[in-house]
Amino acid sequence: MRSVGYQPAEALTVWAVSDGRAGIENQALGLAEALGRRTPIKLITKRVNLRTPWSWMPPGFVPAPRNALTLDSDAIEPSWPDIFVGCGRASIPFALGIREWSRGKTFVVQLQDPRVNPREFDVVIPPIHDGLEGQNVLPIVGACHRVTPEKVDEAVLSYPAALEDMASPRFAVLVGGKSKRQDISAKRARAIADSLVTLQRETGGTLLVTLSRRTGDAARMIFRTWLAPHCAIFYEGEGVNPYFALLGAADHIFVTADSVNMATEAAATAKPIHILAVDGQAGKLARFHQSLARRGCARPFIGRLETWSYPPLLETDRAAAAVLTAWTARAKAR
Questions:
Q1: Which InterPro entries match (predicted)?
Q2: Residue among 16, 17, 39 nearest 325 (CA)
């Protein structure tokens, strides 16, 4: 859907800048692609990392970051983009510098909480559970992402196995792992596996499981031993990634409680999300799960299957609309 009103004469050049890690890069790409659904863009992905000792410095205090890039980083050089979308710590020194380098041409959008004064950017888009506030701050539920109905439908159709022919209800299980405060122990993994196998036996449904890079070795072994034999798909990183296809084919989605990204992506499908408990302290993630619950997206999984409905959570599209509105206001004022 294109936005009405002001449209640029030429496609906007948009940089999506991160350190290249999938969970970080996909947030920047998600917002950039959402901009492209509203106005023509030329999207360029930039992966950047700083050499030591510059990488040890607070990102707001890195002198001449363009001269401190690692050899495998993409160059941060002219011609400058119309919109810079940064995500993650590695992008921040470049987000802080690009308005000066571009002589004010580039509109700078920073995702997540940059832990730098938000006024240093044009727009900051943090998760609402971080509690960041400011005139140019747009908090969203969860994180920006790349999930759209078109992408998941295409993924289902192109996946090598006929997912929609598998027995219903189909359960997509998205397993995360270690984070700052949480993890999945072997004991917890066994409890998750047992509860899902019981559910599959009671319903006659199909288990479609994908593990994360963050899934620890001990938990991975437990899932491989006790859960994988009962799954139609058990993905550990080899072969075609089924992630989008699982979101499209599932009737229910199970997500471990450590992951903001996966839960937000699941909520874009409007399918019931069942949160699987993990070990450790939830901290700010408790507020995130409360936000999902208030919107009817997710409930804790307590061993029995519940079904409900809710409107899809489209926070990435809302953020893209706000960014284009702010960019348009500045373009008209210049």
A1: Elm1-like
A2: 39
Evaluate whether 252 touches 305 at the Cβ level (below 8 Å).
Answer: yes
Per-residue pLDDT of the chain (334 residues; tens, 9 = 90+): 344 455 676 899 999 999 999 999 999 999 999 999 999 999 999 999 999 999 999 998 999 999 999 999 999 999 999 999 999 999 999 999 999 999 999 999 999 999 999 999 999 999 999 999 999 999 999 999 999 999 999 999 999 999 999 999 999 999 999 988 899 999 999 999 999 999 999 999 999 999 999 999 999 999 999 999 999 999 998 899 999 999 999 999 999 999 999 999 999 999 999 999 999 988 889 999 999 999 999 999 999 999 999 999 999 999 999 999 999 999 888 7
Which domains, and CATH codes, for the chain? 12-141+315-333 (3.40.50), 149-300 (3.40.50.2000)
Residue by residue, what is the 3-state secondary structure of 33-44? HHHHCCCCEEEE
Token pair 């360029």 in the structure block, residue: 44
CA dist., res. 168 & res. 172, Å (int)? 11
**Total-model pTM:** 0.92
Please report, for residues 77, 94, 112, 124, the alpha-carbon distance to residue 20 in angstroms, rounded to integers and kept in the order given.
18, 15, 15, 20
In sequence order, the β-bridge partners of residue 279 are 183
Q: Are 255 and 275 in contact (CB under 8 A)?
A: yes
| Cβ(91)–Cβ(48) below 8 Å | yes
Q: In sequence order, what are the beta bridge partners of 85?
A: 16, 109
**Residue 100 in contact with residue 90, Cβ under 8 Å?**
no
293 near 282, Cβ under 8 Å? Answer: no
- DSSP structural state of residue 226: I
Q: Is 30 in contact with 145 (CB distance < 8 Å)?
A: yes
**Is residue 31 a contact partner of residue 323, using CB atoms and an 8 Å limit?**
yes
Residue with tokens 């993890």: 183
Q: Torsions phi, psi of 285, nearest 5?
A: -65, -25
Task: Give the position of tokens 């747009």.
Answer: 138
